[in-house]
Design a protein that fits this description.
Phosphoribosyl-aminoimidazole Synthetase, Chain A, domain 2; 60s Ribosomal Protein L30, Chain: A; 2 domains; 7-stranded mixed beta sheet; 5-stranded mixed beta sheet; Selenophosphate synthetase; PurM-like_C_sf; UCP036540_AIR; plasmid
Length: about 325
């Protein structure tokens, strides 16, 4: 098992998705992370506004994905942005898109997916930019939301537990590493379920059960945990066997997956049961998968073996350490 764990962690460290997060360090070096009201490195920009916060985020999609799955790319434009808003303890207000396509037919499929996703999650598309005479097919979608109390990447504390909440009622969206528990629920009943599931995050924030969270992104579960640890200036130990996982999903594939509904939250140990009960009450699998520590390492335990996945004291990921 020791050799298996070493090989697994090496493969994940060398993956393209984690490398893409390292690219963020170049952006942070140019834009800077000095004393400012808006902290860089979170799922959304949180802009103080009245008795709460405006949340602003955007997502872009690679040409190859948009060209091979135009409807699903459009759907994801709404889905992943809504997930970012929820991860910050917020509720979506509206989205805008920027679309480039080489034909009107390609544009129609992309926009239909965006329309279906926006309707499913109950967030209107209020404008954007369209070019149907381009040489490529690309999509970017931005979202505005609002939060009363924030969940952030900066407030995980040593002594807290790490909870993973993942909707396992899905399927692989081959050939991409997506675990899709969303796009098949575009009807009225399915949409109501998805909106109720998303609502769990802001209510957890407003009830003071958690202050730190991230949605599990293309960096995978360990990569997302590493991003959370870096921004909070802490370390974590994660038990792989405790991670919610479909029965037939190999560990490597699952740790590389981007689930349509997957969140990491930290909480005081005494609040963990209440948080997990809320997810489980809606059919979402939730488990304590680790603990937050004062180290700057992300350590992983599998069976009886333990190994360091990443040492932030030696090498940053995104360049957003405190």
């Amino acid at each position: 098992m020791a050799h298996e764990l070493t090989t697994l962690l090496r493969t994940l460290r060398m993956g393209r998705s984690l490398a893409a997060k390292q690219d963020i360090a170049e952006v942070s070096a140019i834009l800077g992370t000095g004393a400012k009201a808006i902290r860089l490195g979170d799922d959304c920009a949180a802009i103080p506004d009245g008795d709460g916060y405006l949340l602003l985020a955007s997502e872009g999609f690679q040409d190859s994905f948009v060209r091979s799955m135009p409807w699903f790319a459009g759907y994801c434009g709404a889905m992943v942005n809504v997930s970012d808003i929820a991860a910050m303890g917020g509720r979506p207000v509206a989205v805008v898109d920027a679309l480039w396509s080489d034909t009107s037919e390609a544009a129609a499929s992309i926009l239909t997916g965006l329309h279906d996703g926006a309707n499913t999650y109950g967030v209107p598309v209020v404008g954007g930019h369209t070019n149907m005479r381009s040489t490529h097919n690309s999509l970017s979608v931005a979202i505005l939301g609002r939060a009363r109390h924030l969940l952030t990447s900066f407030d995980a504390q040593p002594g807290e537990v790490l909870i993973a909440a993942i909707d396992l009622r899905g399927r692989w969206h081959d050939p991409h590493p997506f675990w899709d528990a969303s796009s098949g629920l575009c009807g009225t009943e399915g949409a109501a379920r998805l909106r109720g599931d998303i609502e769990l995050l802001p209510t957890i924030a407003e009830d003071g059960l958690s202050r730190a969270a991230k949605d599990i992104s293309m960096a995978g579960l360990l990569g997302t945990a590493l991003m959370l640890a870096e921004c909070s200036g802490i370390g974590m130990t994660i038990m792989l066997d405790d991670i919610p996982r479909p029965e037939d999903a190999p560990m490597e594939r699952w740790l590389s997956a981007f689930p349509s509904y997957g969140y990491l939250l930290t909480a005081r140990p005494e609040d963990a049961h209440a948080i997990m009960a809320r997810f489980r009450g809606r059919g979402i699998t939730a488990s304590v998968i680790g603990r937050c520590e004062s180290t700057q390492r992300l350590d992983v335990i599998w069976a009886d073996e333990k190994e360091t996945f990443w040492d932030l004291a030696r090498s940053s990921l995104m360049g957003f350490a405190p």
